[in-house]
Fold:
Amino acid sequence: MITLLIYLAPLAGVILTLPQELLPGLVDSAELQYGGIESGQTASDSTGTGASLSSLWSYSTVTEDRHGNRYDHALHGDQHELTPYFQDYDNTTNITAQLGSTAYLNCRVNRLRDKTVSWVRRDGSKIKLLTWGLHTYSNDARYSLSFEHPNNWKLQIKYTQRRDQGTYECQVSTHPPKVLSVRLNIVAPVVEIIDERGASVQEKFYKTGSTIELKCTISQMPQAQTFILWRHGDHMLNYDTSRGGISVKTDMSSSVIVSTLFIANATPTDSGNYTCSLGDVATGSVLVHVLNGEHPAAMQHGSGTKDLCSLSLVLVLAVLTTLLNTLHASHAR
Structure:
């Protein structure tokens, strides 16, 4: 110890002989580099210069985290072992969210210490700041930081739109910054109303007194949902108790949801446009005709039969006209 003091004495003497106006700057620089001065002394204390320098010297290899835990780098290794790192080791993450839903982009950071986490949106060479720490800097109210204890700095995007698709970066304020890239994909469900053969249908015919059966399929859904809305015009049918005889059955599989609407004892008033929808995200529709007396098949093929009759009538009239003209010409001779 005495030997160490002998070697350090000249250096301490040089420091103490520096002009007084340079000492605060030296202390300020040291405070920025080592994170603070011990014993309540600050860089602006003109009377505590000796104590401040002593504190700076004694803490040259010791740091303290936000929880008050001290770490001696001289005893436990290099300072790089204390730098923040992402818990998810993959540098790029892909997230798929349904159009209109809430998307969550995770960023789990370990050993953050005094560093700050921020989220930015990258569009080519353009970068837009979304959050810094717990604060949101986006003008779009759909974006917010939802911190999840103990280390997840989660970006939340409500009511996702197609324009939200793209690359986001979670950045930690190290030098250089540590970056975790997240690719957000937005998908829209596909809604179709199908017939008995599974083909998409735009129009259906039923006879009075029969049961209307409309089948709706929803595919390409990254998030499982079972609440499908059926409407007749603007009237919602799922909870209709005034008419009676209305029921909805929903079957889920791994890839497709099938919702079937049943309406018993159909009457002409049940005719009209029916829609199957998944919120405001996607909708399928079909036009229903409830016929009095005439069989639905006759109506479906009626147009073709009428066209054939019209063509036959035209041919008969043409033949008769030709015969009459021929007879008139022979009499004229």
Observations:
- The helical segments are 2-16, 23-34, 49-58, 73-76, 296-332.
- The first helix runs from residue 2 to 16.
- The mean pLDDT is 76.
